[in-house]
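User: Some background: our group keeps a shared notebook of sequences we're curious about, and every so often someone picks one and asks for a predicted structure to add to the entry. Today it's my turn. The entry only has the sequence so far, pasted here. Could you supply the structure so I can complete it?
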Amino acid sequence: MSIWDDNMKNRMGTVIRKKRMQKGMTQEQLSELVSTTPGFIGQIERAEAYPSAQVLAKIVEVLGIDA
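Assistant: Of course. Here's the predicted structure to add to the notebook entry:
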C-alpha cells in the first residue's frame, strides 16, 4: 500500500512539471541534478510513479518548491 493517492500523485507531478518548465529545465537536466533518470522524472510528472522521500527532497530543493 502506498502513501500516495492518485490525486496527490497528479498534483505533485503537475507542480514538478510546471516548476521545471518555469526554470527552463529539461527532464534530463533535472534528472542529472537529482541523480535519477529522465524517464523516471517523466513518470513522476505523468503520475505513473512516485519518488522516494530522498528523490522528492532533492527535486523540491533543486526546483525551489515550497514543500
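Suggested note for the entry: The chain has a mean pLDDT of 92. The CA atoms of residues 27 and 39 lie 8 Å apart.
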